[in-house]
Amino acid sequence: MPVTYRFDSNIVIIEMVGEYTKDDIPKTILDSLADSSCPARPFICVNLTESLSIYKRSSQDVITMAKSLVSLGKRFNRIALVAPNDLQYGLMRMGSVFSEGFGLTVEIFRTFAEAHKWLLS
Q1: For residues 98 and 65, is the Cβ–Cβ distance under 8 A?
Q2: Which 3 state secondary structure label does DSSP give 2?
Q3: CB of 16 within 8 A of CB of 25?
Q4: What is the Cα 5 distance to its own chain's centre?
Q5: pLDDT for the residue 1
Q6: Is 66 exposed, middle or buried (0-12, 13-18, 19+ CB in 10 A)?
Q7: Residue 2: which of 82, 55, 22 has the closest Cα?
Q8: Reduced to 3 states, what is the DSSP secondary structure of residue 107?
Q9: Beta bridge partners of 14
Q10: Strands 11-18, 3-8: parallel, antiparallel or unpaired by DSSP?
Q11: Among 24, 40, 58, 109, which residue's beta carbon has the most beta carbons within 10 A?
Q12: Range(s) of the domain holding residue 36
């Protein structure tokens, strides 16, 4: 599956690789939060580094995904988004502004290492 999750300490890492559907993202996040290995109120790291589907997403798609995250906001702590290129970064920035308006703490990073460090700080 091109959208997968794994755990690293108290972080749920959602990785998007290649092509995937819009529905794969919220499903994978829900699956990760329901996993018996998931820590209570984890941090979330969404890694778009190898995503191809992001280039086909509209601004409305990004807002719809942000709404999904907002609806789950009480189940996790802050969110780090890894978006190494300008298009990814811009789309994620738009989604983060929307999410922050509903009380989520979201930051965008160019590298996984920066995102990981922020989540553990």
Answers
A1: no
A2: coil
A3: yes
A4: 10
A5: 59
A6: buried
A7: 22
A8: strand
A9: 5, 46
A10: antiparallel
A11: 109
A12: 3-120
The helix (H) or strand (E) run that includes residue 82 is strand 79-82
> How many residues are given for the chain?
121
**What is the SS3 assignment for 63?**
helix
Q: Which residue has the tokens 């890894």?
A: 82
**Domains: count for the chain:** 1
Distance of CA 120 to the CA centre of its chain: 16
Please report, for the domain that includes residue 97, its CATH number.
3.30.750.24
Q: Whole-angstrom Cα distance, residue 19 to residue 56? A: 10
Over residues 73-85, the pLDDT tens digits come to 899 999 999 999 9
Per-residue pLDDT tens for 3-56? 999 999 999 999 999 999 999 999 999 999 999 999 999 999 999 999 999 999
In our burial notation (b when 16+ CB lie closer than 10 A, e otherwise), range 88-104 reads bbebbeebbebbeeeeb
CA dist 87 and 31 (Å) reads 28
Tokens at 39, concatenated: 């820590």
